[in-house]
Amino acid sequence: MTKNFKMVAKTLFGMEELLAQELRQLGASAIEIGTRNVSFEGDTGFMYKANLCCRTAIKILKPITAFNIFTEEDLYKKIYEMPWENYMDVKGTLAVNATVFSDVFTHSQYIALKTKDAIVDRFRDREGERPDVDLDHPTLRINIHIDRNICTVSLDSSGESLHKRGYKVESTLAPINEVLAAGMLMLAGWQGQCDFLDPMCGGGTLLTEAAMIACNIPPNLNREEFGFETWPDFDVDLYEKIEEAALKKVRDFPHKIYGFDTDPAAIHKAKENIKSANLQDFIEVKQQDFFESEKQNEKPLYIVFNPPYDERISVKDVEEFYSAIGNTLKRGYPGTQAWMITSNMEALKFVGLRPSKKIKLFNGKLESKLVRYEMYEGSRKASKQ
């Protein structure tokens, strides 16, 4: 048995509790919630599992040391003294990224550069040659986090951000981040309990994430590679066991997931992405105007969607567009729980329905609200009785 060590999972604002819950269910210990991150403990197998199975994590970092620094020279010296040959070969490649919260050190790119210099200088002094930098597919990704005078050095076990699930073969205008999509669905309480509709589905991200949640499919199953796979101590047999155990937990889904979009190109892209995720048996997409649609049966229905952004709706149309959303939900979708995300707070006033819940999130850099509208059969009063 390998022993437990500390890790830090990074996430989006508003997803911290969800991520802590995911880690708890997977079996992590010593969980502590921070801002946009959750720290926890687990062994090497758990690190593999967290990367494979966490829907709301962007990165899983493995801190290897922390020290005080007061000048850039301190940083260089401390990094230079670390045994980097234990973590990579001189023939390998590296990439460094830094986040800085400090009055003394203010430029994160400069900190990343200084770190890289110290590592390559150590190799050159010891072995007469130096590793190269590769920002896209390095052998080792290193994360530097400076908080005031404390510098934490971590290895990035994920590699590319975990929102890059590997199933998106076609991209649309302003696509939603996969981690944000999964988090929205989890905040909405979606677990695969009934039919599901995304009425403005674009490239199909919400549909794909909804199907993976409903079937309990590990979200990063389609990824080509994780960062830890190029580490010297990567245990391929252990990883395969972890993957096999996760796949045994996949379940069947007896309901329907479907998506609409008015744009035929978006429908084509959604179909390609869904096929790439091997979920075409669970998801149906068709060209359809949501505003001319209605619910197909009496059964309960979840609606979750990300309406087009302001660059795709001219300003004069916003009022009309959002009031059409409210009218369509009222007229055509009784017995429905409808959730949508928007960064246009003014536009929400035109929906003409009172949200029963509002959750603050960020879609990229845009502050947004995830809102819930409950569409009761008949009147609200009748549904309570």
Automatic annotation (TrEMBL):
Domain of life: Bacteria
Span of domain THUMP: 46-157
Entry keyword Protein biosynthesis: no
Coiled-coil positions: none
InterPro entries tied to this protein: DNA_methylase_N6_adenine_CS, RlmKL-like_Mtase, RlmL_1st, SAM-dependent_MTases_sf, THUMP_dom
Alphabetized PROSITE patterns for the sequence: N6_MTASE, THUMP
GO molecular function: methyltransferase activity
Assigned keywords, A-Z: Methyltransferase, RNA-binding, Transferase
GO biological process, one term: methylation
Pfam families linked to this entry: RlmL_1st (PF22020), THUMP (PF02926), UPF0020 (PF01170)
Residues annotated as transmembrane: none
SUPFAM superfamilies documented for this protein: S-adenosyl-L-methionine-dependent methyltransferases
Protein's recorded name: DNA methylase
